């Protein structure tokens, strides 16, 4: 394998119902930094049906080149069809790095592509860097349930690939009118060559509060003792108008459903206020919430690592502190309201 | 009659594992070895399918000799046969090399009895990657279906199955040709307590153990550390962030200070009357 033949950083552009997934725009931002450091082009790969309309947006968020596979066979995401397109693109244009969102689709596609190329794939990366001269991708991620961080390298194969968690990287601000080079590709792929069929897509737009969109999150951990104790989080969240989050062990204990889990194997969140109550603060959890605007930790254990990652900490019993906070918060707000009414 | 193979792994319980603060390495001896929790759902689902459609459930693992315990746990859940590949040549494998080794074993198992369906857990709790399942599917050239949260139908006669695959905002209903490989979410089922007869059977059960030499046509360059494109170059404790302000005083005073902080953000509490 001649590494000189492999140039450029690519981002797989994931599309949902005609829109680019936010994580793909974030990855264009992250990919741009890597590409600039290497002095190479940033490419976006779009695969879909009638998706040409997305091309300009990909330029505007930083891509220099767009590789486009636009055909009816790519209407739904299917591992085999998308994988074949991406493998074809790799073979023709030889990138040195490919980044994917660590979503259902991104992880599925990346795993299949890595096996066929073959090459190395680092999952759920939270930090990315590249060695300027060698082009070696430094992909770092929490390991062993979040007890440590590990930097993973792929020295002997190209391209180097990683999936990256949504909301960890930052998109560049959009530059309207920024443009680039379009490379349109086709693939002689027939429906009979794809062994799966998407019969139906069910979008669940329930009223569930999506914690990745919440401004205020009240997250609880095993320190709350029981699922009854965990109710404190619901009460505080109700009072503040926030959503409830949870650490991994709480979800595994069955106190709350998985979609509330914050952390490496759960959701990455960026609320304006994050409460960590009875959460010790394993890295697994920290990577999921460290970009919150204001982090408030309440924990009995003064040694809990969470106190090193919060803006304000209270060492104390949540069962004493949180109810007091709820009461005083209600009083403070009604006082504000009364004062406002007086002024009007 | 279906032949379903579940691929499983014995893992250290990462919730209990302790770190050596001096070396930043894991003290593996501190953590009990358990069957990867996600894999228990894969085995349970295989057993449910067997009960519904008839057939056999085999489990396969790669690991050091003590990993036999994880196979016994699967027998407790209701699996019929257990296979383990164990050899120093497998050591240090990343997901690519692991999927290769398991594929070699699956090919041998399929000669004993053709495989209709392969099930894997969503990921392991020590590696957290979820890459081995899809890797196996690609190597066997069968369709991979990840994030499966429900199996609707397995129709061996007509050679297809239907599953629900979880998406970020819902799910999709997919029909796939058989054989195929699924990696399953834990919401697919609840794993009940083991029955007494299964526990007895598990206690006596001895799985088939193969070394590299027992497998056919193995390319040794693709095994273990040698066959692994990824390497861990550095393991580190993340830099300690600057600790925040620890509020002092009695509980009442602490709460008042915190309230002061919150009320500075009162525009956030609009629906609670804060943004006036």
Description:
The complex is a heterodimer of chains A (344) and B (276). Chain A is an alpha/beta fold. Helix content of chain A is 30%, strand content 27%. Chain A is built from eight helices and 18 strands. In chain A, the strands form four sheets. In chain A, strands 7-11-6-1-4-5-12 form a seven-stranded parallel beta sheet, sandwiched between helices. In chain A, strand 16 (273-277), helix 7 (283-289) and strand 17 (294-299) form a beta-alpha-beta unit. In chain A, helix 3 (79-93) packs across helix 4 and helix 5 (227-240) runs parallel beside helix 8 (318-343). Chain A is elongated, with a radius of gyration of 23 Å. Chain A starts with 8 loop residues before the first strand and ends with a helix. The model of chain A has no long low-confidence stretch (mean pLDDT 93). By secondary structure, chain B is an alpha/beta fold. Chain B contains six helices and 15 strands. Chain B has helices at residues 37-53, 68-77, 95-112, 132-140, 196-204, 251-263, and strands at 2-8, 10-12, 18-20, 25-27, 33-35, 55-62, 81-85, 117-121, 144-155, 160-167, 170-177, 180-184, 208-210, 230-236, 245-246. In chain B, helix 2 (68-77) runs antiparallel to helix 5 (196-204) and helix 3 packs across helix 4. The model of chain B has no long low-confidence stretch (mean pLDDT 92). Classes of the chains: A alpha/beta (344), B alpha/beta (276). At the A-B interface, helix 4, strand 7, strand 9, strand 10 and strand 13 of A face helix 3, helix 4, strand 9, strand 10 and strand 11 of B.
Number of helices of chain A: 8
Strands of chain A, total number: 18
Helix and strand content put the structural class of chain A at alpha/beta
Shape of chain A: elongated
Strand order of the largest sheet of chain A: 7-11-6-1-4-5-12
β-strand amount of chain B: 25-35%
Mean pLDDT of chain B: 92
Quaternary structure annotation? heterodimer
Could you give a short account of the major beta sheet of chain A?
A: 7 strands, parallel
Distance between the termini of chain A: 75 Å
Low-pLDDT segments, ≥5 res of chain A: none
Radius of gyration of chain B: 23 Å
The H-and-E topology of chain A, N to C, reads as EEEHEHEHEHEEEEEEEEHEHEHEEH
Count of alpha and pi helical runs of chain B: 6
Spatial order of the strands in the main sheet of chain B?
Answer: 11-10-9-12-8-1-6-7-13
Overall shape of chain B:
globular
Number of DSSP E strands of chain B:
15
Determine the structural class of chain B based on helices, strands and strand pairing: alpha/beta
Main beta-sheet strand count, sense and barrel state of chain B = 9 strands, mixed
């Amino acid at each position: 394998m001649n590494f000189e033949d492999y140039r450029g950083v690519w981002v797989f552009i994931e599309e949902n119902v005609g829109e680019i997934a936010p994580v793909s725009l974030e990855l264009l931002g992250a990919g741009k930094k890597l590409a600039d450091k290497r002095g190479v082009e940033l490419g976006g790969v779009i695969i879909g049906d009638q998706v040409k309309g997305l091309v300009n947006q990909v330029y505007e968020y930083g891509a220099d080149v767009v590789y486009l596979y636009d055909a009816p066979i790519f209407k739904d995401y299917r591992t085999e069809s998308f994988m074949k397109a991406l493998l074809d693109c790799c073979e023709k244009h030889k990138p040195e790095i490919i980044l994917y969102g660590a979503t259902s689709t991104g992880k599925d596609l990346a795993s299949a592509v890595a096996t066929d190329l073959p090459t190395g794939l680092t999952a759920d990366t939270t930090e990315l860097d590249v060695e300027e001269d060698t082009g070696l991708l430094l992909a770092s991620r929490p390991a062993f349930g979040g007890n440590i961080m590990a930097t993973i390298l792929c020295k002997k194969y190209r391209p180097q690939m990683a999936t990256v968690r949504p909301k960890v990287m930052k998109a560049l601000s959009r530059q309207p009118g920024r443009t680039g080079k379009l490379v349109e590709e086709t693939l002689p792929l027939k429906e009979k060559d794809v062994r799966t069929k998407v019969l139906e897509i069910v979008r669940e737009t329930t009223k569930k509060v999506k914690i990745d969109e919440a401004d205020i999150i009240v997250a609880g951990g095993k320190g709350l003792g029981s699922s009854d104790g965990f109710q404190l989080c619901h009460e505080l969240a109700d009072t503040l108008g926030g959503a409830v989050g949870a650490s991994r062990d709480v979800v595994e204990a069955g106190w709350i459903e998985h979609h509330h889990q914050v952390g490496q194997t759960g959701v990455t969140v960026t609320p304006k206020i994050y409460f960590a109550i009875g959460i010790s603060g394993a890295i697994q959890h920290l990577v999921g919430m460290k970009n919150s605007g204001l982090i408030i930790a309440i924990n009995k254990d003064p040694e809990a690592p969470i106190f090193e990652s919060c803006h304000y900490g209270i060492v104390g019993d949540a069962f004493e502190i949180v109810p007091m906070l709820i009461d005083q918060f209600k009083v403070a707000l009604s006082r504000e309201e009364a004062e406002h009414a007086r002024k009007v | 009659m279906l032949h379903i193979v579940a691929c499983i792994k014995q893992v250290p319980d990462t919730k209990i594992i302790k770190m050596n603060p001096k070396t930043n390495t894991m003290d593996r001896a501190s953590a009990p070895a358990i069957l990867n929790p996600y894999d228990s759902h894969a085995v349970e689902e295989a057993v449910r399918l067997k009960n519904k459609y008839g057939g056999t459930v085999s489990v396969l693992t790669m690991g050091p000799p003590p990993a036999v315990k994880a196979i016994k746990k699967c027998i407790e859940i209701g699996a019929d046969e257990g296979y383990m590949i164990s050899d120093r040549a497998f050591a240090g494998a990343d997901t690519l090399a692991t999927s290769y080794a398991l594929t070699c074993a699956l090919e041998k198992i399929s000669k004993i009895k053709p495989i209709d369906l392969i099930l894997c857990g969503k990921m392991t709790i020590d590696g957290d990657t979820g890459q081995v399942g899809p890797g196996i599917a690609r190597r066997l050239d069968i369709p991979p279906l990840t994030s499966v949260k429900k199996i609707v139908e397995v129709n061996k006669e007509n050679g297809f199955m239907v599953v629900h695959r979880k998406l970020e905002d819902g799910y999709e209903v997919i029909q796939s040709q058989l054989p195929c490989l699924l990696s399953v979410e834990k919401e697919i089922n609840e794993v009940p307590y083991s029955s007494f007869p299964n526990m007895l059977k598990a206690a006596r059960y001895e799985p088939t153990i193969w070394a590299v030499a027992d497998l056919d046509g193995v390319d040794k360059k693709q095994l273990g550390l040698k066959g692994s494109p990824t390497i861990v170059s550095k393991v580190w404790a993340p830099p300690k962030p600057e600790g925040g302000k620890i509020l002092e005083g009695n509980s009442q005073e602490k709460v008042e200070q915190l309230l002061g902080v919150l009320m500075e953000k009162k525009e956030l509490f609009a629906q609670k009357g804060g943004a006036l």
